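During the practical work, I worked with a single protein chain and the tokens that describe its fold, as given directly below.
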Amino acid sequence: MEGSKSLSTIQCSQKSSHVPLSNFASFQSHLSALNTQQRLRPVFHHDASYSAFERPMEDPAGVEEYQNYAWILASFAREHFSPFSEVYTRTRVYPSAIKWMICVYCFISVILFSAALYKSRISAIRAYGTKDPELSTMDTLSIESRLFKLSAMPLSPSMFEPFFIRGQSIDPQSVTACLWLNEDDLDDLIPWVAYWQGPVSLLVVTHTMSPSNEPSTLHQKILGVLKNMPWNVSFSCHLMHLGPAHGDYPNAFLNIARLFAPTASVLLFPGNLSLAPPPTLYSSLVSLTQSPTLVSITSGTSAAYPFSPFSPVFLPRDHPLWCTERFFDSPSRASDWNECLWQLWLESFGNVHILSEPNWQHLRDTHAISSSAISNIIQRRLSARFKSETCVLAMRRIETLGEDDGRTGASRFVVMSHVKDDAWVVHVGLAREGRWWQGQWQEKDVLEVAGRKSSPKILEAFADSIQSTIVRGDLCIENWDPLAESNKDMKLTLGPTANKPLHMHLQEMTTQDAAKFAANEFISIALQARSRQCRLHPSAYDAAPESHSTRHTPHRIKRPRHTSPSPSRASSPPPLKAPEDFKSPAPDDTTESPSPKPSQAEKRSRSSNSNLEAPLTRSKSSKLRSRTDDKDERKGKRKAKPLASEPTQAELLAREEILVLKHELAKARTMNMSQGSFGPGGSSSGLQSRSVAPAQPARRGASLANPNKKARRYKAVEFASDNED
């Protein structure tokens, strides 16, 4: 330690010769070896010796050494942020202050640089991206597929340049304005865009593509127009090069601009940009939920056709309504767009939503384009043919498929009524969607409508009136919204035009209950079809009997009196023609009820007068046959051809009895199926008991021993009285 102390003394003396050594013991220093890197660590003192040690710093040479910016910053930090009131030395303050300042500065710089780099990267991706965000299945199609599948114009790749200019930073929820212009009208785009706040999809059409440098000239012209546009406009431009011989197809051009629109909602502008939209139009369309909507350029809101010319239409880009492109020689934009508006009016069943925006700005005066008389004639004929074909197609689609587009027009419902033991149940189904609603009336509901003290006759008349209302189709559905997910307040109205219509609340059935109900209905239909050889509808030839070749008989069979009128009579074989000597009974006898067996006196009187009655009966039967033939001719029935051999009397009777029994059995089966366990009413009752047909009474003039044979005739002499002798 002594060597160390002496060395320290020498070094201090070399530094300054004015340092006293009297208080050397109080100064503690740790001196390392000469080849080490440890620093000399001074210890702060609060005694009087410290002031003596600090005096050499007042040397002018030392003051000039420490007068720099780092020392000034360190002094400022020491005075304001140091926890000690004493003055720091240079070896303590200078490195720590600079270190913290550099660290803070570097940390803030890294954050700002990272944010700027990330923002530039995102902007570069949006600017140089080749695909728009997928809004629908249309976005997955290539450009060639869009042109060949969705456009009627045969466009080759050399004629069409999609997305020559692609808009950037487009919000998918915004509304795109679809326009088309000729090359000469590009200057009208700049003032028009100043009134529109959303994206723009523009189709530029040129009819001069013969020179090789023509496309580059058009490109330079479009780029010059783009430089003068406002910076916040998202602008997409498509080019179409047509030859000089091609005309304009306004609806086709507008469809192509809509086809390549970057957003899900579009606004079709059919005009030539001579009218600018009002500033409030874009905000009204963004908040609009009903589509398609016609934007009226006048103050009227009438939904009657015809509409105002050049009225824009707001609709989704993938809406099934596309403007017709069948008019190849359109005289003007207005005539072609008028057909598109009529098509919109027809597709919406006359219920077109109207948005009135009358404050349109007139940018320049337009001059009417004169067209030839031949073009006008062709346009009128094509328009009439197009409207007739479209109307026929719409009516067939409504009648056969029941289409309602799910959004506009009239919805088609089916109503099924079932009567149970304790309630009247009504099921209402929506066509093409598989949704079912159920409503019912209990006994208290019926009495509330008909009256608490109603008699059975009044209730029966009330039920008959409801049945006639349903049969006439005098029904409607209230509180039905096709766009709503659930309709809780739906009502079935019976007789909406009556003074006091009846209402039944409907509740939507779950998917499981609706499927169960539909399955039960199909089972009931299938069981009823078993009696018709599993046919859905009965055949007109099911009840026709087969003809048999038998020997000819001159007798004509009278229809049995016990059989009741039934539909089978129309399908039974026609009556055979009787010979002239056939004695037909009077017409009143065919409708009489069965009479008791005649007595012997009656037989005697009838047999005695048979010769007198024969001509009268023969004349009456001929009159009846002539009347029957006249009725058959008036009804258009086909007469039966005369048979070579007619069946016998017994065969005809047996055949008619078989037909009657068949129809009675078919009625019993139908009643059993409609009222069985699978029936719509849910009743479990089986076949109802039916009365057996009474036995066939004895025919007049038939033998008692053998009813199939005629009774023998006895002479009047055999019944003479003995008193006459």
In short: Residues 90-128 form the longest helix (39 residues). The first strand starts at residue 160 and ends at 165. Residues 137-364 form a domain with the Spore Coat Polysaccharide Biosynthesis Protein SpsA; Chain A fold (CATH 3.90.550).
